[in-house]
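Annex B. Sample input.
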Amino acid sequence: VEDGGGGAVMTDAHPGGTRNPTGLSRRGVLASVGAGAALAGGLVGASALAGRAAAEKEDGKATTPASDAVAFYGTHQAGITTAAQDRAHFATFDLDPRATRDTLTGLLRDWTDAAARLTQGLGASTIGPLSGPYDAPPDDTGEAIGLPPARLTITFGFGPTLFETADGVDRFGLAARRPDALVTLPHFPGDNLDAARSGGDLSVQACSDDPQVAVHAVRNLTRIAMGRAQLRWSQLGFGRTSSTSTAQDTPRNLFGFKDGTASLRGEQAELVDTHVWVPQGADPKADWLAGGSYQVVRKIAMHIETWDRSSLREQERIVGRSKSEGAPLSGGDEFTAVNFSTAGRGGTPLVDPASHVALGHPDTNNGHHMLRRGYNYVDGNDELGRLSAGLLFIAYVTSPATHYIPMQLAMARNDLMSEYLQHIGSGLFAVPPGVAQGEFVGQALFS
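Annex B, continued. Sample output.
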């Protein structure tokens, strides 16, 4: 039975003094058969994973109805245009100071193998949470036993410091292939960033319809990274604040308003190609990123108690939409185009030029769109009894230099909503294209 690190292990005695004379548990035998079949073919493909899932289902490790699993392999990483799930666990990691280039590629290879299994409802590795050497830690933590995949997606990103540290050190020989657009986001007006909740060498976005499945994924990737990378910061999210499919209703944020009405949907293929995926030739030294995207992450604290004392009229003026239907104040329904020139009594624009809609809308940002995958969060309360709550803003763009930074700068300076928000965490990551069977995520970067 493989131990996940290339070595072989034998199963020790199990509780009650019963020893399997072969040294393998029934689950270990099933796992080794699945692993052997994959190795014989040279690839761990979708069919191999499906067969292994069926075998492991009988042993209580997973239940994997096909409609509940999202394919891991593909042209683009899943978790971007995938219909947004209800829950998320976002995390960033820093490489160990002693890590080498081989350490990094080994970690990415192990993470890829684990993610391919986890998204199909399998254990993180081949032995499983209930088998293997009885005096050694299991190779899966076990809290997802019996749970379906719940549309789990795992999306990986590379931060600026992976290519060059703040001190200018090129730890892994990657500086020459760093994309020009992959920078540390600027300090915008009003930012109160916490370094401990910002940045990171690597990012992991796990989204699922079951919070325990998402947490299980990040927990096991953290366990696999031990000794090679450590968790820098993470955030649980619930109640998605955007839709990435036309089949989804627009959700509401913690201010009670519909959020992300003008965000891109996965079915808008032409717009997604233009505004989300990095085109071939966009940056000759970073051709490895073609077909990938840039992931913008901001942790935004919302002053809930102050907002809750504002009148409905004031709330709608700040947002620029009705609270009931999400329709623009210029008239129509939620998806009616905003008319920024429509004036009301006394010639005052119905949609305030400093409203959140006016400053964030594609029509006022040179036609640039974002694909948003944000989530609400609540981290308990502060020492004054106020909710520590807000928005985990996640967006995917073809270039942060054109699609995010100018917009956020304008909003930070002029947005009426800024009085009720404070950005406390920040990150920008280059998200490689999808993974082909037999490869690891971001492999082209190291070619």
